[in-house]
Amino acid sequence: MITRAEIVDWLHEDDPVRLAELWRRADDVRRRVMGDEVQLRGLVEVSNHCVRRCTYCGIRAGAPVTRYRMSPLEIFECAMQATALGYGTVVLQAGEDPGLELDIVSETIRAIRKRTELAITLSLGERSGAELAAWRQAGADRYLLRFETSNRELYERIHPARADEPSDRIAMLGRLRALGYEIGGGVMVGLPGQTRDDLADDVEMFARLDLDMIGVGPYLPHPATPLAGEARPDWDSELMTYRMVALARLACPGANIPGTTALATVNRADGRELALARGANVLMPNLTPTRYREHYEIYPDKACLRETAPVCDGCLRGRLQTIGRTVGSGRGDARRTAVGEP
Ligand code: 5AD
Ligand code: FES
């Protein structure tokens, strides 16, 4: 297992020759534990309504975006498209939207569960214990909830709590685990005030939570948000994200780790490919109908904003072929048991 001192050293490492050693180690563990298959997870951005005011996020409450909420039928049709394209998982993601009511979401999950073999991942923000239990009961398999940073003070600065209760995403991940979900967390890299020590804490937190999925992406300032004017750390957040992807793989060998859309946004040429060569094993093609996609603007100039689902699918398959990786079959669950330590 990788030690705290090693994590901190790698986060400070700038020598390309030494970094190549980190990439190689992460890639070796990824190949040995997860194989060469890249899992494709179809992402459906089901609603951009949000009651929260996270200071980094372009769809925060009050932001000047056109709001939409997909109907259960529209969501179901996207899930059918995920199946048609051969994906093993559909991810239903949204702002924290109370309009996505318990029963509506439950019925949508049941419909997908009944008609497809898809694993169903939810990413709907901080929801009540009753909702999380009902959705698990309805057939949801996984839940993604990034904790964004393990620095409590920084977290509170970027993520104002709701009036009624404090925000504790770490605790919620524990509740999700107890309900039998596979759990996904993750962080943004390059937040104003974030330090390398914070990132080392994040990597240790990934391991402590024993995450099944770890999403890491560069923070991208959105001009219409309060955080946009604040000074960011002096590091290259793209490169720092690769360090974090590699360290996440070393700390959590069996986790599913995506090459994120935020990485594709800062490096359209090969951000995702570089992540896949440095520990990642998942891509999340966007299945959101194009008429809604442009409104899910959590950060500006998002990759794949106008491409339709079949275009992204073809694009990603081509990219995988170029780097000698294959498309995964099946659901692509995390490897939780005794595959071995690095
Ligand atoms: N830059 C980068 N990532 C962002 N996210 C939200 N806003 C931004 C931004 N401005 C990420 C958060 C969230 C995930 C869905 O998208 O980590 O959890
Ligand atoms: Fe969407 Fe390449 S993945 S266009």
Features:
eight-stranded parallel β-sheet, disordered C terminus, alpha/beta, binds 5'-deoxyadenosine, 8 strands, 342 residues, TIM Barrel, binds FE2/S2 (inorganic) cluster, globular
Shape designation? globular
Strand-residue fraction? 5-15%
Radius of gyration: 19 Å
CATH superfamily: Aldolase class I
- The average pLDDT score comes to 95
In CATH terms, what is the architecture?
A: Alpha-Beta Barrel
CATH level 1 name: Alpha Beta
CATH-derived topology: TIM Barrel
Q: Which structural class matches the secondary elements?
A: alpha/beta
Distance between the termini: 7 Å
- Runs in which pLDDT lies below 50 for 5 or more consecutive residues are 338-342
Bound heterogens, unique: 5'-deoxyadenosine, FE2/S2 (inorganic) cluster
Folded structure, characterized:
- The protein is an alpha/beta fold and about 350 residues long.
- It has a single domain, classed as Alpha-Beta Barrel (TIM Barrel).
- Helices cover about 40% and strands about 15% of the residues.
- Strands 1, 2, 3, 4, 5, 6, 7 and 8 form an 8-stranded parallel β-sheet that branches.
- Helix 1 (about 5-10) crosses helix 8 and helix 2 (about 15-35) crosses helix 9.
- It is globular and about 50 Å long.
Provide the fold topology.
Elements: H1 4-12, H2 16-34, E1 37-47, H3 72-84, E2 89-94, H4 102-115, E3 119-123, H5 129-138, E4 142-144, H6 152-158, H7 169-178, E5 182-189, H8 196-209, E6 213-218, H9 237-251, H10 261-266, H11 271-276, E7 282-283, H12 290-293, H13 309-322, E8 326-327
Parallel strand pairs: 1-2, 1-7, 1-8, 2-3, 3-4, 4-5, 5-6
FE2/S2 (inorganic) cluster binds next to helix 13.
